[in-house]
Amino acid sequence: MLEYATPGTLPTANSRLVAWLPLFVWTAYLAGLLLLFRFGPFEWRYRDDSTLYGFLFIVHLASAVGFTLGLARPLARPRRVIAIDKVVRVLALLSSIGILFGLIDQYRSGPSLLAAITDPASSRREWIETRGFSMFSYAALLFSVAHFPLVATAFGYWKTITTRAKWCAVTTALGMCLIAVWSGSRAGMHAILVVALFFNVAAAIANRAVGSLRSVVTIGTVLFLGFGFYAGYVSAKRASKKTIDYSKYVMRTSSNVDFNHPFVSDAPPSLEPIILSGSFYLTHGFDGLAACLHKPFVGIGFGLAHSSFLMRTWEKITGDQRLNQLSCFTRLMEEDGYSGALWVTVYAWVWSDVGSIGTPFFFLLLGFVFASSWRDVLQARGNAVAAWALAWIVYTIAVTPIIFPPGDYGAFIGFWGAGFLWVLTRSRLAVA
Fold first, then answer.
1. Count of domains observed in the chain
2. Which residue, 51, 113, 385, 424, is most buried by CB atoms nearer than 10 A?
3. What is the pLDDT of residues 262-288, one digit of tens each?
């Protein structure tokens, strides 16, 4: 049974449901993606592939087993207590430094904020071509490691932190959104929304949010719908630079698009680009994953082949390119002409590193940490770092159809760093 921040917040009958809630949501999300992949408007090559569905079933079953084991783990009883306000203020300072470096980097890259809003296609292209990787870029990436922990900690313990800490968290989150809009990046804004919504829900369950669970979910739904329209707007703007007909743009990577599908034919013409864009981005990675699974496994990456950052670093240090050839994504581009702008899902990156046998074990561990950190966050006087690890797991699940987050320099440090810190401090450091 869970110990909530305020005893009696939830009826006893609901505590078991609350404990299993993340796994239910995870399962429903994956099922929804696969239903859209199989029955959506895009007729992908591997939409009927039994190997793909069998692989995903085994992997998610392993995740469920790991989650079950995590729930059965005894609650941590940390001995040392740290003030949550202090944690939020330190994280806000680190995030603000990262935002400052990011704003300097954006200013140096060329496009103005107005150009990024009115013409995200040209602005994004100019930013990528001119920014390079300066000291400001690396500093911004390094300090951005504090972004997720800040959002998770502040919103997860909203009612218990002071007004000053709240202002620090909100202004820093707005700074993150500003950089995301300025760079034409939907990923940055999506990440903030996912983590903020999840931890607002957790706070509402543990009676640490300002509003009720219903109000949190309602506001979160509205924000995500708004983000969906913004993302569709950016996609349509980018596509318009390449072709007048957006339908032709998305058809470049699909065998066929069913324009008689109810999603398309019954929608207003103005919404067609957004619907096609959303369906395309949420499903095409599974087609890439299926293509990976039909390729022979060429070797274990020993924990290095799941991250493009690690593979690039290894090649620079040793000059050895063999590790890069283990990547399913690289092999698809070289052997099948797969576009580097497309995705292969989180599963393909893990599969590239540990193969079909190791992937279920990795997701068993992920499910175990997911459940354990979820209980720690809801627990009164829970571990101070649990929210950080939980935030990265939640975001990893959210970008399931896209990529494995540790592929980038900053995300690699944040993902694995939060996990190791949680393991080291779980029985030692609590928040109050």
1. 1
2. 385
3. 888 887 877 777 788 788 888 989 999
